[in-house]
Design brief:
The complex is a heterodimer of chains A (295) and B (163).
Chain A lengths: L22 E2 L5 E4 L4 H6 L1 H6 L1 H8 L4 H4 L4 H5 L46 H7 L3 E6 L2 E6 L19 E7 L1 H4 L2 E7 L10 E10 L4 E10 L6 E2 L1 H7 L2 E2 L5 H11 L10 H18 L11
Helix pairs in contact in A: 8-9, 9-10
Chain B lengths: L1 E8 L2 E8 L4 H8 L18 E4 L2 E4 L12 E3 L12 H9 L8 H14 L5 H7 L11 H19 L4
Parallel strand pairs in B: 1-5
Antiparallel strand pairs in B: 1-2, 3-4, 3-5
Helix pairs in contact in B: 2-5
The chains are: A alpha+beta (295), B alpha+beta (163).
Chain lengths: 295, 163
């Protein structure tokens, strides 16, 4: 609003609603109020046990002042970003870009009416890796939406959320709480920054044979929505991970997702970051990829 | 559209009548007249406007005053005990953690909140707690030294049974 990107006629504050504390539902799902602050999520002992990658992602958003007011629902519903869109002065060059209601795009000047502004949320990739469900409220009541169906991939309208709808709660299924998970946010300096890339991984490993029965590998901050490396996931599911090399999986993930340049970083650099951080994440999940020792 | 609100700043209640789009920093500086809280970027990216809302650091430039109705706010003016500087403020002086001083109120408030929560933070915990406060002058080292120094000097007082 301060940059004039959106000019709402009315603003309704949810400030006076108190968020419910995190709880466990009858079927063992972790239920989080959308109004929970990111600092509450980051510090919650229950969330650190049941969804540690979510606590970590929340802990690395912005700085503590931002985390003390920002909410989980708000973080999931943030708008996409682009250096040309998010100008700090009161005007944007001469003509408004597509996302501002105009007729052009500065970083991609030729072509159709497409907006490639990037979705920068850190909690969204983690919740996608955890197969979360969103409880969405509207005039007629509540409905459940799979988080995979919540993001459109359209930079002009990134969310599948109607104008009279809002997220009221986030549910993390019991099965996801038992998966092997990892999250990393790659930043230039380490604080008060958007990610260059982020990688959220969740693997379901069965039995002593190290068989992977479910895999979700999500790359964030490199496209108009977080992206799943579906092809790579399918290649490792149903396999014993003992002989699988983290480096190979990482290379596949970097090829699997379409990396858009953003915030001044080049596509090539970001793609390399995806590969490096995926590899490091998989190696940090050492017990899952035992063949990687010394790699 | 104006609203009547009450802000409790540094223990004093202020009755204000202001528009719902006035930010907390504008209310603190212009309506109440406390100028210690600074406006840096005015868009939530630098931390110069940091105040404590019910003890927690927040950015007053992107918080509406009306959302803080009836709540306790601590500004930099509320950190010292009248004339006596707090341990953290003394440590900033001792350690050379102030150059131009513009980031300092925000740094002190973030540091004060940290030490209340964690009396003996490690270096990385101090850096993490202050990540939302930017400084263009000092390079941060002496600011972190000041917080660590204060954590030692405060615990010394606690051992002696003082405040």
């Amino acid at each position: 609003m301060k940059n004039g990107i959106i000019k709402p006629k009315a603003l309704i504050s949810l400030n006076r609603l108190s968020p419910e504390k995190e709880s466990v539902t009858a079927d063992g799902a972790l239920r989080l109020d959308a109004l929970s602050t990111l600092s509450d999520i980051a510090e919650s002992p229950l969330i650190k046990i049941k969804a540690p990658t979510l606590a970590k992602a929340a802990f690395h958003v912005g700085g503590q002042q931002i985390r003390n007011r920002a909410t989980l629902g708000g973080n999931l519903c943030q708008d996409t970003r682009c250096l040309y869109l998010n100008q700090s002065h009161g005007f944007q060059f001469v003509d408004s870009c597509y996302k501002r209601g105009g007729d052009c795009c500065y970083p991609y000047p030729a072509g159709k009416r497409v907006c490639r502004s990037v979705f920068m949320s850190d909690t969204a990739p983690v919740l996608i890796s955890l197969g979360a469900q969103l409880v969405i409220l509207d005039n007629s009541g509540e409905k459940r939406v799979d988080i995979n169906d919540f993001y459109t991939g359209d930079g002009l309208k990134p969310l599948n959320l109607g104008s009279a709808e809002m997220i009221s709660a986030i549910l993390i299924p019991l099965e996801s709480q038992k998966m092997q998970c990892h999250f990393v946010k790659a930043t230039p300096r380490g604080g008060l920054e958007f990610a260059m890339v982020s990688v959220a991984i969740a693997l379901k490993i069965d039995g002593p044979d190290n068989n992977c029965s479910k895999a979700r590998i999500v790359v964030g901050s490199i496209n108009t929505s977080p992206l799943r490396a579906f092809k790579t996931e399918q290649e490792i599911v149903g396999h014993n991970l003992n002989g699988v090399l983290a480096a190979e999986v990482a290379r596949k993930v970097a090829d699997d997702v379409n990396v858009l340049p953003h915030h001044g970083y080049s596509k090539g650099y970001l793609k390399q970051l995806v590969e490096v951080h995926t590899k490091r994440s998989l190696m940090a999940m050492g017990s899952v990829f035992p063949g990687n020792k010394g790699d | 559209m104006k609203q009547a609100i009450e802000l409790i700043i540094n223990g004093e209640t202020h009755d204000l009548f202001l528009s719902s789009n006035v930010t907390l920093v504008e209310a603190i500086r212009d309506n109440v007249g406390l100028l210690g809280t600074k406006v840096g970027c005015d868009m939530g990216t630098c931390g110069a406007c940091t105040v404590l809302l019910e003890g927690k650091p927040i950015l007053s430039c992107i918080t509406l005053a009306v959302e803080c109705n009836g709540k306790e706010i601590t500004t930099i003016e509320g950190v010292s005990d009248g004339v006596t500087l707090s341990n953290l403020q003394e440590a900033f002086v001792r350690k050379g953690g102030v150059q131009c001083g513009f980031c300092t109120p925000g740094m002190i408030l973030s540091g004060t909140a940290l030490l209340k929560k964690n009396a003996h933070p490690k270096v990385d915990e101090v850096a993490k707690a202050l990540e939302g406060n930017l400084c263009r002058c000092t390079g941060y080292n002496r600011i972190i030294d000041a917080v660590l120094d204060a954590s030692v000097s405060t615990s010394h007082l606690q051992d002696q049974g003082e405040k």
